[in-house]
Structures are given as structure tokens and as C-alpha cells.
Design goal:
Layout lengths: L7 H9 L4 H12 L3 H10 L2 H10 L2 H10 L2 H10 L2 H10 L2 H8 L4 H9 L3 H11 L17 E2 L4 H10 L9 E5 L5 E6 H6 L6 H4 L6 E2 L4 H10 L4 E5 L5 E6 H19 L14 H28 L1 H6 L7 H25 L7 H30 L2 H31 L9 H24 L2
Helix pairs in contact: 1-2, 3-4, 3-5, 4-6, 6-8, 8-10, 14-15, 16-21, 18-20, 18-21, 19-20, 20-21
Organism: Ornithinimicrobium faecis
Protein name: Magnesium transporter MgtE
Function: Acts as a magnesium transporter.
Length: about 450
């Protein structure tokens, strides 16, 4: 197939070959025919050295657009492979909040060198965002915004928007400020264009939904998206306007948080970049800690079996149901934890609601246990005998109730302790329910069978 019509997959193969002047020329021709999204996907799949080569054959404006579309992790990888002059040029063109996300991924020496290469004004704006705590919405806001005074008219406001249209992060949501940049309202561009030029801004502005700079970024972003806003002003603790967050920034924050929660609920850490471009050693590091923790925790289960070894020797059939009971308990707890973790993230549940959550999960777990226990009683009673059926039925009822309560409580306890609720979820709940479920199982067996 001619180089002019190479699709992204064949361009990837081309960049994987031994590099010659002809190969580089063909890569440049093929890359010029790809859409920006295809180039971004290709850069994310390539090793940093080859991705840097692709950058060098792209037109400067297009390379900048692709660089800004990458996540901070990939940008950091590229910086190590690109020439310093290329890096500084890209860095200068980025928005302050995007610069900060990139700086967080870089070694301190590299970050300091990039900061020192900025113009004084851009360095000041970047320093403002860097000054806020990691994980706060202030760290993700843009200080480049356009605002209008409360005393202005619609005509004056539009003139101010036109004067800053190329500098502001967004012009669709315009904060209204009073003396000392005190935030008093917000007005949309559509409302300005539809209003009489001499109308006072105070008559067209609406109440504002804002966030304090130190508020948790995920919580602020979810509230922002829940309100279906285009932009949300960020204020300091005295309600003075300091920045703005746009809908695309909020979507990125929530996507990162959801990816992290999903990974931790599966017993690993989020990769923060596509799977194929993640180093094998990085994959191992994201998994090994959790496996070690779970391996140590699983010793509890072994110890429980050792304690009740005599009971198993007397009624060997009890061992056949251990996988069923531990699996059911773990799954029930995981279901409850996932539901409550999601409710916490969306703001449907807070730490103060723990009593209501536990009361609901007791009822849910008991009903689930009643259904599963009845089924277990019938099957085990027919296949083995009535007493074994009673043991299995009662155990399923107790284990489901216990697991649902534990699964519902742990994410709330984690949030109260300022830990990530996802960390306390599936892996730890499964291990806890396994050990506790076995204790319940053997105690019921001893009582019913008279062992």
C-alpha cells in the first residue's frame, strides 16, 4: 500500500522499523493524513522514543495540539525523549493548570528547569496553581479567566470579553465580581448577547455555584457535572475569585477518579496511561503490593481452618461447602461496598449517614440470605440430610447479613479516616468475610450437629 494512504496501524508498523531517511519521510507523509485523534492514539501506543520521532515529523501547530491532548503521564514520557528546545516550546503554549499536572509527573530537576524557562507572567500564573494542595480543585483550576464588574453594563461586559477572548480559559461562563474581586454572580455569554447593551449586569446575572480552592477536586468536579454547568468559578476562603474550572477539566478529574476506584476495587493501582504503553515493571508494581497484603490477610482463613480442624474431621462433608460460603460472603460484601462507594462519590451518602446505611444493608443482607439460605437448605437437605441442610441454610443467612453490613460500613469508615473508600473495598472485604464466614459456619455446625 502506498505511504500516502497508510492507516494508523501501518504507520505504527513503519515507525517500529529500522529508521532511515526514507522511513522518516514516509512517516511524515502518512502522519499528515491522519486525524488528530488518530495521532493521539498512536502516540499513546508507541514507546517514548518512537513517539518523539512522530512528534518531530508533525507540523509545529499540530504537534502542539496533540501534545495538549495527551494525559500528563504521556507528556512526561515524551519530555524525556524530545529535545529541550521542543519541550520548552510546548511547555510555554500550555495552560497553567495543564502545566501543573505535567510538573507533578516530572522529576524535580526537570520541573524546575522548565519553570525557569517560562516568561515571568506565565511563571507567576503557574506558581499560583502550584501553591494549592495536591488533590484540591485549586490545583486543577485555570487562573486565566475573564470576569466583569457588577457595576458594568452588558455592552461593557461584551467589550471586556472581546478584549480577553484569546487569553481566557472560557468565555461561556463569566463570573461577576464586586469590589476586591468578591464573587457575586455569574452570567453566560448567550444571555449577554441576547440582552440590551445598556442593561446593567446586575439585572442579567444569576446566582453562582462555586468551589473553594482547597475543596477536594473529585467532590467539586462531581458537583459541577451534576449541576450541568459549563464553567465553575473557584474562590478563596473569603469568596474572592481566583480561577475557573471548565467542563472538560471536570470530566478529566472524574474519569481519573473512576479509573483509580475501579482499579483499587480490583486489588491494583490505576495505570494512568494505556496498557500497551505501560512498562512491565510498572504493571508489576501496581499489583504486587495488593497481592502481598491479600496473601498475608489470607493467613487468617488458614488459621480458622486449623482451629476447626477437629470439626472437619468429624463431618468431612462440611468441607465441600466452604468455597460456596466464602464466595457468597465475599460477593455480597463486594456488592454492598461497590454500591456505597459509588454513592459516596456522587454525594448521595455522607459519613453522617452510616446508621441509615447499616440499617438498610442489614435488611438487604437478610433478604438475600433468606433467599439463598432457603435454596441451600433444600438442595443440601435433599442431597445429604436435613441437619446439613439446616447448617447451610442458617450459615448463608448469617453470612449474607454480616457481609452486607461490613461491605456497607467499610467505605464510610474509610472516608471518615480520610482514606480512599475503594482501598477498603473488595480485596479486604473478601478476606475479612472469608475468615469471619468460616467462624460463623463452624459455630453453627457445632450447635446444630452437636459436635
Amino acid at each position: 500500500m502506498p505511504a500516502e494512504i497508510l492507516p494508523a496501524e501501518e504507520l505504527e508498523d513503519l515507525l517500529a522499523r529500522e529508521l532511515t531517511s526514507e522511513t522518516v519521510r514516509q512517516a511524515g507523509t502518512a502522519a499528515a493524513l491522519l486525524g488528530e485523534g488518530d495521532v493521539v492514539d498512536l502516540v499513546e501506543r508507541l514507546p517514548p522514543a518512537r513517539a518523539a520521532l512522530l512528534f518531530r515529523v508533525l507540523p509545529k501547530d499540530r504537534a502542539l495540539a496533540v501534545f495538549e491532548s495527551l494525559d500528563a503521564g504521556h507528556q512526561a514520557d515524551l519530555i524525556s525523549a524530545l529535545r529541550e528546545a521542543d519541550v520548552i516550546d510546548f511547555f510555554e503554549q500550555m495552560d497553567p493548570d495543564d502545566r501543573v499536572s505535567l510538573l507533578d509527573e516530572l522529576p524535580a530537576v526537570v520541573a524546575d528547569r522548565l519553570l525557569s524557562g517560562l516568561e515571568a507572567g506565565e511563571r507567576t500564573l503557574t506558581g499560583v496553581v502550584l501553591g494549592y494542595p495536591r488533590g484540591s480543585i485549586g490545583r486543577r483550576m485555570s487562573p486565566e479567566l475573564v470576569s466583569v464588574p457588577r457595576a458594568a453594563t452588558v455592552e461593557q461586559a461584551l467589550a471586556n470579553v472581546r478584549a480577553h477572548v484569546l487569553d481566557a480559559e472560557t468565555i461561556y461562563t463569566i463570573p461577576v465580581v464586586d469590589h476586591g474581586r468578591l464573587l457575586v454572580g455569574v452570567v453566560g455569554l448567550r444571555r449577554l448577547l441576547a440582552s440590551d447593551p445598556q442593561t446593567p449586569i446586575e439585572d442579567v446575572m444569576r446566582p453562582v455555584e462555586s468551589a473553594v480552592v482547597t475543596e477536594d477536586a473529585e467532590r467539586a468536579a462531581r458537583r459541577f457535572l451534576d449541576r450541568k454547568l459549563l464553567g465553575m468559578p473557584i474562590v478563596d476562603h473569603e469568596d474572592r475569585l481566583v480561577g475557573i474550572v471548565t467542563v472538560d477539566d471536570a470530566l478529566v478529574i472524574v474519569e481519573e477518579a473512576d479509573s483509580e476506584d475501579a482499579a483499587r476495587q480490583g486489588g491494583t493501582e490505576a495505570l494512568r496511561r494505556p496498557y500497551l504503553s505501560t512498562a512491565v515493571t510498572r504493571l508489576v508494581r501496581t499489583r504486587i503490593v495488593w497481592l502481598l497484603v491479600l496473601a498475608v490477610s489470607a493467613i487468617l482463613t488458614v488459621q480458622v481452618l486449623e482451629i476447626f480442624e477437629a470439626t472437619l474431621d468429624q463431618v468431612v462433608v462440611l468441607a465441600l461447602f466452604i468455597p460456596l460460603l466464602t464466595g457468597t460472603g465475599g460477593n455480597t460484601g463486594n456488592q454492598a461496598a461497590t454500591t456505597v462507594t459509588r454513592a459516596l462519590a456522587l454525594g448521595d451518602v455522607t459519613s453522617r449517614d452510616i446508621g441509615r446505611v447499616l440499617f438498610r444493608e442489614v435488611r438487604v443482607g437478610a433478604l438475600l440470605g433468606l433467599v439463598l439460605g432457603s435454596l441451600g437448605f433444600l438442595i443440601a437437605g435433599v442431597v445429604y440430610d436435613l441437619q446439613i441442610g439446616i447448617v447451610i441454610g442458617l450459615t448463608l443467612l448469617a453470612v449474607c447479613t454480616m457481609a452486607a453490613v461490613v461491605g456497607g460500613a467499610m467505605p464510610i469508615i474509610a472516608q471518615t479516616l480520610r482514606a480512599d473508600p475503594a482501598v477498603f473495598s473488595n480485596p479486604f472485604i473478601s478476606t475479612f468475610c472469608d475468615a469471619t464466614g468460616l467462624v460463623i459456619y463452624f459455630l453453627i455446625a457445632r450447635a446444630v450437629l452437636g459436635l
